[in-house]
Structures are given as C-alpha cells and as structure tokens.
Specification:
Length: 185
C-alpha cells in the first residue's frame, strides 16, 4: 500500500510555501524520468517540458506579470506582484507542453490526457521526494509562445512550480468513492 500512501499524500504546495533551498539536477531528472513513464496511446509520448531555473525562471515571471498587466481589464498590483513572486519563490519552474501527433492518429484529448498523467507522475515523485509542487494554468499561458519557441503542433498546457518546503502540510479527505462509482453487473 505504499503507492496508495504516496497518492494520498500528494498536495498542491504553493510557491509561497517554498524555502530557499534549491533543488538539484538529480532530483529534477528523477521527476522528469517519472513523467516519461506515463501511459500513451499509439506511443505518441506527447509530453514536452521546458525546465526553467535562474534567470530564465525569473524572466518567465516578468513576462507573465507584464502579459497580465497588458491584457487585464481590471488590473491589480497585488496580483501582478504575486505572479512574479511565484517564479521567484520556486526553485524550478517547468512549462508543461503537449506535442500534437502530426498525423493526428488519435484524438487530441487523449494526448492531453497523456500529458496530464505524466504531470501526475511528476507530482507523485515530488511527493515521494518531499518536494512541493503546484500545477497552474492561467489564461495568460496561451501567450507563452511569445516567451519561448514552441514547435508546430506544440501547445503549453500549464506551469509546474517546484520547491523545497518546511511547513507541515494539511491532510485532505476526499468525498466517499461510493458517491462517484456505479457498479454494473
């Protein structure tokens, strides 16, 4: 039941909870290796990741904040600063991307599902390594092609923030599974 314990322990741990201790490349590679073992129909392996550290990570925060400012109908300085702070507080930020099968041999939703499962694998590995992580998909993610090159057929689905943390994490109790399952004979 160790796997179920890890699954039950997985949490969204926000960048505001991260400490200053950096992640090392060995940890990051282990997390990415876990992602690479996600299920994939017809072996399209659509997950693509752009790993940002240091200056590129902070540049992303600046880009997202400025894009928010540019596109916002009701600008909030608090939100603007918070967007930049997320990347600054994170040790590593990973852009979660999907490379669409050029033959479109399977429905797009299946490739999105594969990418989502790869991120779940990353999240579970982060949990096992006691690394905080959080997937965010803000509206401004649709402009990420202005920040970094995307291949033809590639789209960014979100941002995966990661960092070490010290705080005790709250437990979660989901609703009963019986409310979500119908057994058919």
């Amino acid at each position: 039941m160790k796997l179920l314990d890890t699954i039950r322990s997985r949490r969204s741990i926000m960048p505001s909870q991260y400490n200053d201790m950096p992640l090392n490349d060995e940890q990051i590679n282990l997390i990415l290796e876990a992602a690479n073992w996600a299920p994939t129909h017809r072996k399209t392996e659509p997950w693509r990741f752009k790993v940002l550290k240091g200056k590129s990570k902070n540049n992303l925060g600046e880009f997202l904040a400025e894009k928010y400012k540019e596109d916002s109908i009701k600008f909030s300085k608090f939100k603007y600063d918070r967007i930049k702070e997320k990347t600054k507080k994170s040790s590593v930020v990973i852009l979660i991307c999907m490379q669409r099968d050029p033959l479109e041999s399977i429905p797009e939703w299946e490739e999105i599902a594969s990418v989502s499962m790869s991120v779940q694998n990353m999240w579970l590995m982060c949990t096992k390594l006691n690394i905080g992580s959080y997937w965010s998909s803000p509206k401004i993610i649709n402009s990420i092609h202005e920040f970094t090159n995307l291949n033809k057929g590639e789209k960014c689905l979100g941002i995966f923030y990661m960092g070490n943390y010290d705080q005790e994490i709250n437990t979660r109790t989901p609703g009963p599974i019986e409310d979500k399952v119908i057994w058919l004979d």
